Amino acid sequence: MVLALFLTAMGMLLSPSSSSAATGDWWLPTSRPAPDSQINVTGEPFKGTNSAGEVRGFVDAHNHLFSNEAFGGRLICGKVFSTSGVADALKDCPEHYPDGTLALFDYITHGGDGKHDPVGWPTFKDWPAYNSMTHQANYYAWIERAWRGGQRVLVNDLVTNGMICSVYPFKDRGCDEMTSIRLQAKLTYDLQDYIDAMYGGTGKGWFRIVTDSQQARKVIAQGKLAVILGVETSEPFGCKQILDIPQCSKQDIDKGLDELYDLGVRSMFLCHKFDNALCGVRFDEHGLGTAINVGQFLSTGTFWRTEKCTGPQKDNPIGAASTKAEKDLPEGTEVPEYDKDAQCNVRGLTDLGEYAVRGMMKRKMMLEIDHMSVKATGRVLDIFEAESYPGVLSSHSWMDLNWTERVYSLGGFVAQYMHGSQEFSKEAQRTDALRAKYDVGYGFGTDFNGIGDHPAPRGADTSNPVTYPFKSADGGSTLDRQTTGQRTWDYNTDGAAHVGMVPDWIEDIRLVGGQGVVDDLFKGAESYLDTWGSSEDHQAGVNLAKGVTATASSSESNPFTSYRPGRAADGDGDSRWASDWSDDQWLRLDLGSSHTITKVTLDWERAYGRSYRVDVSTDGSAWRTVWSTTAGDGGLDTATFSGVAARYVRMQGVDRGTNWGYSLYEVGVFSG
Description:
Layout lengths: L1 H13 L26 E2 L15 E6 L22 H4 L14 H7 L29 H9 L2 E10 L1 H6 L9 H22 L8 E3 L3 H9 L3 E9 L7 E2 L2 E2 L3 H14 L1 E5 L16 H15 L5 E2 L15 H4 L17 E2 L5 H12 L3 E3 L5 H14 L4 E3 L9 H7 L2 E5 L3 H10 L1 H7 L4 E3 L24 E2 L6 E2 L2 E3 L2 E3 L1 H4 L7 H12 L1 H8 L1 H14 L11 E4 L24 E2 L7 E19 L4 E9 L6 E6 L6 E21 L6 E8 L2
């Protein structure tokens, strides 16, 4: 094995060099494997920062480079790279030969019979294609073209699903999710080494894995691609639930977060597709939703459960039952029917989930809220607002769009799924005013190798086709049609067949949506790094109310425990103050001396205030209202206001949200 790797490396070093490499162009390798894919881009990639010191470039906030190693290793066919060359990397799965008859997942996800020409290199008759979900779309040379075309940030989400792996008949390895995550992380570092070897040694290639925002800024200022590791899996740290019983502990979560952080992971999802021990999911729609619901039952023993939504945000409609999907269920078991007026997942953020969220904050990691139920997302945003923590991401259009401003107001980052240029431009323009208000850029999530369709061709006869060659968004490079082997792709007739077509897609957006959309995308790298850097710089606020003297209008009597006022200021999130069961009740905190305060957090038990206010005083006699609401919905509320001097802080209840009284686990008071 060592000898084979040595000979392969020597072959790379001694293979014919690109003719332009001899000119000393830093962006071209001194040696590229031969034969290999073409890049079809000329011109120097832009370097440095703009006049304001900001980095420039596009962000692919959601991609899955190595998901061919996930799901048992045979769901996605082809490799990102191979030391044996392109012919080994870009070949179909063995069971797809001779005509795709056994390409089961192709026709499960696509319809039809799944038949296709399995031959990849060098002919590529049928794949990669915009609507093929089971073939490699992230070959390293195609990523290189995306970088040359202006992309400067790539989030590689390590992904798998143990249940999909277990039910898919073709596999060549086990289904443990964390084992797959570790392998994909290793291969990302191996890819970095593979590219470095083409450029003369360690650190010299354009593909740079980064583990902090300042490192990313330096990489981008050099004109290279900053690669960030994320995780998107259904049972992180083994945190599945069976019959609503968690299969992990706080110790498992801490151990898992530490391991992922050591691997270089800086962003992650806590739930994906299936409800787990951490949170409920935002449902998939229609027949696919039913199929995943069946998968959830087979994995956990529970189907999704729904309830009426309490706000404008909704989870996706599940859709009618599918007889195909139900065939996998035990005899006599049926998928539930769901009320159209009850579209929200009952399951929100669990206690273990909240522990994981706070563990990520402690490690300065960013949390992906896409795929979380609206109930879970609402709680996460409540926690982040209470802590002024900006590290929240929506990377591929899987959150309810009504959350967008709350994400921006925290300092978070939003990217849209790689929709067709017309749909993408329409959504970008809908939120243009919000981006202007918060002075942020925009991103896209390609989700390549993520089992999803990509932009279809608009047709060569469209009134405004992409015209080749065209200039990159920065104007410094020229891009022609992309060729690999005997196949040349044209965006007008092939759509977004692989990641190398990202620059062509952006040019199509310019033609359809206008330069303004592209300009916002070009600001994406700076905004993503702003969110990351602010998360790294975050310091937990000092709670001025912890341990102070508390008094109240009343305290509920209970022979087994105490609900005295001090329980809401003891720093213990499990103890609480509870009032008598009437409307006009208050809780008062004495901070001991005057402080300038700007924020009060109130963590409600089920007995919450619908209408209440926050009052402050310097002497305990003259009170001033600094914040109020008539639409309280329980959970964790954050009252923010301009800085005001106060020694005393009071929650004054006006109208209860339940038939019980008012009950608070903890009240926090913070200065600027």
